[in-house]
Design a protein that fits this description.
The protein is of the alpha+beta class. The chain has one domain. 24% of the residues lie in helices and 33% in strands. It is built from eight helices and 18 strands. The strands form four sheets. Strands 1, 4, 5, 8, 9, 10, 11, 12, 15 and 18 form a ten-stranded mixed sheet that branches. A four-stranded mixed sheet has the order 13-14-16-17. Strand 16 and strand 17 form a beta hairpin.
Amino acid sequence: MNNSEILFLYDAKMANPNGDPDEENRPRMDYEREINLVSDLRLKRYIRDYLENKGERIFVTKLEDKSVKPEKIIDKLKVDLNKNKLEKEDILNALIDVRLFGATMPIEGNTRTFTGPVQFNWGYSLNKVELVEAAITSHFSTDEKNNQGAMGRDYRVKYSFIAFSGVISGNRANHTLLKEEDIKKLDAAIIKAIPQLATRSKVGQYPRLYLRVEYNDSETILGDMRSFIKLDEKIDNPRDISEVALDISNLKEHLVKNIERIKNIYYYVDHQMKLIDGEEKEIVEIFKAFDLIELR
């Protein structure tokens, strides 16, 4: 399998992209830069949940919303695995998230560790982000003396345009038996998972741009594509996708310089996402020098 690198952008409007349990579930922030942060584990959770909903067998999951021992997960999955002698091929053929992301499987007396070929850096917002804080009241009393319900705090971002970077290692893919069809399922999950798995705090998040640059070999890595893009804010402190555009002119130049190393570019662009290369253009015009494959 060849290497790929991923650029994934989505926005959040009056939502909490990734609450920090150490900060009363406030959105994760780099307060010095006023940048919203989202962990790679949050993105992987979206992907796992989407794949599980599609009928795929997932190892890193919960049973009835409770954390359990790995042995019980394997029993629940109803896969033909001998817990006393876990064979590598059996594990990998059964579990797509282990093929993608790897896992440590602390089965008593037979621990297995796999390093996944698909990895993401932490996501961060391309714009400065303001937080909203509000009081919320439960309709259910906490005890007989409290008839008015429990009080709490609700934290949201006003608007955050979030960028993720990822890599798929062709060499590591060979060790986890990753398949080309797994990569196609990963593409679909990244594009579709966030809006489909919305909860109360996650409503208002939508994928805006996805690029997966597939190289001609399992050695090429060109680097974090976020370094080559810039959010063009039409007004100060944007609050909606209609108030921003994405300048990808430097990214195009970067990829054109390395065109001989690139096999395909897989892409998804939301119809509301405006792209700039000197002026506003369609992605097929910007990347016309490449073999483009649209994802839907």
